[in-house]
Amino acid sequence: MSKPQNSSKKDKPSKSGSPILRFFVKTGIFFAGLFLCGVLLAGMALALAWPNLPDLNAMTDYRPRVPLRVYTADRVLIGEFGEERRNVLRFNEIPDVMKSAVLAAEDDRFYQHGGIDWAGVVRAGLTNLINMSKTQGASTITMQVARNFYLSSEKTYSRKFYELLLTFKIESELTKDQILELYMNQIYLGHRAYGFAAASRTYFGKPLSEVTPAEAAMLAGIPKAPSRFNPISNRPRAELRQRYVLGRMHSLGYLTEPEYKQAMAQPIVMKSAEGTPAGGYSIHGEYVAELARQLLFNVYQDNVYSRGINIYTTVQSKDQEAAYRAVREGVLEYTRRAPYPGPEEQLDLPPGTENNPQALDEFLDGVFDKFGDSGDLLTALVLSASPTEVKLARSSREIITVTDKKVLGVVARALNDKAKPDQRIKRGSVVYIRKFGDNWEIINLPAVQAAFVALSPQDGAIRAMVGGFDFYRGNFNRVTQAWRQPGSNIKPFIYAASLERGLTPATQISDQPFELTAAQTGSKAWNPKNYGNQYEPMLTLRQGLYKSKNMVSIRILQAIGPQYAQDYLTRFGFDKARQPAVLPLALGAGSVTPLQLAGAFSVFANGGYRVTPYLIDRVTDSNGKVIMQSKPVVAGDAAARAIDPRTAWVMDDILRGVATYGTAARARVLLKRNDIAGKTGTTNESVDAWFSGYTPSLVATAWLGFDQPKSLGSRETGGGVAMPIWVDYMQTVLKGVPEEKPRPRPDGLLVENGEFYFSEFPPGQAVARLGLPEADTLGEFLNGLTGSTSEETRIKVAPGVGTQNNAPWSQKIPF
């Protein structure tokens, strides 16, 4: 029996299936069109971008620039300036163990993929998704070559697109061996070393052909983070990375089991090859090298960095290192005495982090990125702190415990529960530590600065120069660029001027308080003080300088005239515009640089000649040919005569007395020498502290203060903070150097009662007293004075002395 109704339903087209089908068809057409558009757009982008990709011939044309190099006088390298340091090797010259280490660390499927490791991309994506952070990357060796050779580091889609295109181009035009050779010669590996050959010399002091599997693994671990994983900046992190690479080499079959165990057990010995800048040079000449670079840049401009030019400075390596250490110790000693200001920063260290080595090291990575080491001052993270014990971490494998009572006493206030939040040391605090002997100390990164310069008084050759505590925290050179008030360091030059106006070392001068009213000054009353508010009825000129008495200095300047003194100071190389012709000039109200002061004291040391300080002895080209040679003015050249030889001799005699009986007596006691002369200097409120001193063959000036002027402390003086730097330096460089006798007394000097007089100002005609009431006959008898009252107050100008006459000493010190 038939069922037509059912039959008719079966034959009728389905209305419900038709819209779905049409939807899928339309969707398919839409996506096909979208895909076609994408292909067209990609094709257009490819057609436009591909011709603009760089020519790969340049990648294989190795012509590394030869950098500018700076040396000491005794040929020790102290600076190298250029974009890169390379030691280029061909593929067959690179040892297999180094190739294996690189492949294991960076791209173990390098010889299988076509430039992009899609399996690695998927693996890295899943890992990052699981960890909810970017813990893995998928850059291949070819992609790194493309990025490092031609592309900027900006993170944009267009840069990434060009990187992919260039990756494909490199893979299509170069063999795998050529790509790996490029990578191993050009990758940056920290401390300005490009390529593994340069890195091997930088970190191990050996050619790449001699590296062991353990050393190869350490080098191969650096590219991931050159600043954090190199063994100089962070040895523990570098070792952790090395062990990971060795494990990969073992699992990939590059190392047998015995080879792997031997490599894991091998101790790594760090030894930078001579002439590499790894971890700094053999001596700390950063300020010297930078100044030499600037001076030559003014001649050759940018071309100076690629011509292989060598600069030989006047600096002696032994002297330079002694100066560096003296400055560092002087600054740290002051810092220890000052109140501890608190940790560098307070971080939230999650509980138990120290129990997870990987988590602690990752946390410390962030700390070290922001707070780098400063020489022997090392960054550390506080894990726990109490008044009796502080536990710190440099890495998960380097935990330091400080329990020394003396050390903790320096930061005792910061360990107290009642300390202010920003001053308290506690868990998560970032601090600096320094090792001395077998112990560690906690010390803040110094805020105070210092400068030191030493030179030869015979020709002005700079022997040592340190422009600050840490060059890498700002290369401002305080020796040449810091204009500061000299305080009492200016007094010897005022006194020298007075000798040529009729005063003598025996002139008696009032030390009683001195004042000028507002009417006299035209503004505010001026009431200068002696240090410690201590006054005496009278002192001789010699005694006034021994004791650095302000009242004596002011009366001397008042007698000879500020204008005359201002002009006279230019003979020593001081800038006239920075030395105001006012009475406060006697107390150092002008401005000088440490280099100016050292050059000025040279005039006393060498018998009265002004020599121009200079730094560069000669310059050679890449073939060693001398292209520049200095020709310094030498003491003894009549054209360099700055002051009367008698003035220089008498001032030298007085300054030797300052170092024997006066404010600088401690210098002579510590050095145990009789050929020392010098002068301390401290400005108002102890803002600037100075010491300048010399022997007949070496002059040096030390300064200590804050870049933004503020008081060092009421009891901090030039003799207390600057002189120790000078003495520390001299103890090193004068060791084994025989004492030098004073120069012969020049003609034209008279001697009476043990004091010296110019022949044109003999006893009875020279100025006998200043600022004192007239003496009666009995007073003259008791004081051993001679001459009439009229001559006691008279000031004469020696014939031919005190005028400028277009003399060269009026010019500003050049280099």
UniProtKB/TrEMBL annotation:
Keywords in alphabetical order: Antibiotic resistance, Carboxypeptidase, Cell inner membrane, Cell membrane, Cell shape, Cell wall biogenesis/degradation, Glycosyltransferase, Hydrolase, Membrane, Multifunctional enzyme, Peptidoglycan synthesis, Protease, Signal-anchor, Transferase, Transmembrane, Transmembrane helix
Reactions mediated catalytically: [GlcNAc-(1->4)-Mur2Ac(oyl-L-Ala-gamma-D-Glu-L-Lys-D-Ala-D-Ala)](n)-di-trans,octa-cis-undecaprenyl diphosphate + beta-D-GlcNAc-(1->4)-Mur2Ac(oyl-L-Ala-gamma-D-Glu-L-Lys-D-Ala-D-Ala)-di-trans,octa-cis-undecaprenyl diphosphate = [GlcNAc-(1->4)-Mur2Ac(oyl-L-Ala-gamma-D-Glu-L-Lys-D-Ala-D-Ala)](n+1)-di-trans,octa-cis-undecaprenyl diphosphate + di-trans,octa-cis-undecaprenyl diphosphate + H(+); Preferential cleavage: (Ac)2-L-Lys-D-Ala-|-D-Ala. Also transpeptidation of peptidyl-alanyl moieties that are N-acyl substituents of D-alanine
Pathway(s) annotated for this protein in UniProt: Cell wall biogenesis; peptidoglycan biosynthesis; Glycan biosynthesis
Keyword Metal-binding: no
Alphabetical list of Pfam families matching this protein: PCB_OB, Transgly, Transpeptidase
GO cellular component labels: outer membrane-bounded periplasmic space; plasma membrane
Transmembrane segments: none
Domain named Penicillin-binding protein OB-like: residues: 340-448
A GO MF term: peptidoglycan glycosyltransferase activity
Subcellular location: Cell inner membrane
Main location (coarse class): membrane
Protein topology in the membrane: Single-pass type II membrane protein
Its EC number(s): 2.4.99.28, 3.4.16.4
Glycosyl transferase family domain location: 77-250
GO BP term, pick one: proteolysis
Record flagged with keyword Hydrolase: yes
Domain Penicillin-binding protein transpeptidase: 451-724
Similarity annotation: In the N-terminal section; belongs to the glycosyltransferase 51 family.
Name the UniProt record assigns to this protein: Penicillin-binding protein 1A
Protein's organism: Achromobacter agilis
Lineage, uppermost ranks: Bacteria, Pseudomonadati, Pseudomonadota, Betaproteobacteria, Burkholderiales
Gene name tied to this protein: mrcA_1
